[in-house]
Amino acid sequence: MNWNIFLAFLLIIFVNQVTTTNGENYPVVMWHGMGDTCCFPFSLGSIKKLLEQELNQTYVKSLRIGDNLIMDYESGFFIHPNKQLDYVCQELAKDEKLKDGYNAIGFSQGGQFLRALAQRCPTPPMKVLISMGGQHQGVFGLPKCPSLSSKTCEYIRRILNTAAYEEWAQMDLVQATYWHDPLKERDYMAHSTFLADINNEVFANGVYAEHLNRLDKFVMVKFLNDTIVQPKESQWFEFYKPGQDKEILPLKESKVYEQLALRQMDINKKLVFLATEGDHLQFDKKWFLENIIPLLSQEKK
Question: Is 211 a catalytic residue?
Answer without folding.
Answer: no
